[in-house]
Design goal:
- The protein starts with a strand and ends with a strand.
- A nine-stranded mixed beta sheet has the order 1-6-5-2-3-4-7-9-8, with helices on both faces.
- The longest helix is centred in the middle third of the chain and has 17 residues.
- It is built from five helices and nine strands, in the order βαβββαββααβαββ.
- With about 210 residues, it is α+β, with helices and mostly antiparallel strands.
- A hairpin with a 2-residue loop joins β2 and β3.
Length: about 210
């Protein structure tokens, strides 16, 4: 049986104590009606710091699980009385068949999830939806482009920088956007997200 376990306000403890892969769900709400737009696979360094190294949409959550996971997230949004605007729900799927919520924010996902990955992977303009909600207008859910898988990878280490250079050289047409800074300062020390030296977003199969 699939079980949704709520543990609000325990971000680090849930990440540390819960085995399994980490995901997020990107949603939009208007007048208490919720629409779940995308599920994101989140890549991290794991314990002890759980530094996020990249994200991918669509996620690899099995189709058979998506409905149950989505229902749990909808109940959580209702419980928190999130009625208008974006939502970003982070959770883990454990090997034992539990979904453990890490946090829910009434905001778009950062790290280009809300601004880019949702738009690319679904074709829907998430940013425009958030603006519409702020103006009291029902968000437009119609796709604006053909959806395609999309992923972002952050540059922390020399291996990451090499991967970016290989992508730029061998598959430049897959690059949607990128930002690289202080490339000469890249090392293999990864202690927190401030060690990032850039990122790049690609479209198509990873």
């Amino acid at each position: 049986a699939f079980e949704f376990i709520y543990d609000f306000g325990a971000d680090f403890r849930v990440k540390k104590q819960s085995e399994g892969d980490e995901y997020s769900c990107e949603g939009i709400s208007f007048a208490g009606e919720h629409r779940l737009l995308a599920f994101t696979k989140k890549y991290t360094t794991g314990a002890p710091h759980f530094i996020e190294t990249g994200h991918r949409e669509p996620s690899d959550i099995p189709e058979a699980m998506l409905g149950t996971v989505g229902e749990g997230i909808l109940r959580a949004l209702d419980a928190l009385r999130i009625e208008y605007g974006a939502s970003h729900t982070e959770f883990k799927l454990t090997p034992g068949g539990e979904a453990r919520i890490i946090e829910i924010g009434a905001r778009m996902g950062g790290d280009c999830i809300g601004s880019d990955l949702v738009y690319l992977s679904t074709g829907m303009d998430y940013t425009a939806m958030v603006i519409d909600c702020a103006l009291g207008k029902r968000p437009d859910l119609a796709p604006k482009r053909a959806p395609t898988p999309a992923q972002i990878r952050f540059i922390f280490t020399r291996a990451d920088l090499t991967a970016w250079e290989e992508t730029r050289r061998n598959a430049p047409d897959t690059v949607w956007r990128s930002s690289v800074r202080d490339a000469d300062a890249v090392s293999d020390a990864v202690t927190d997200s401030s060690n990032r030296h850039g990122w790049w977003i690609t479209t198509g199969a990873p």
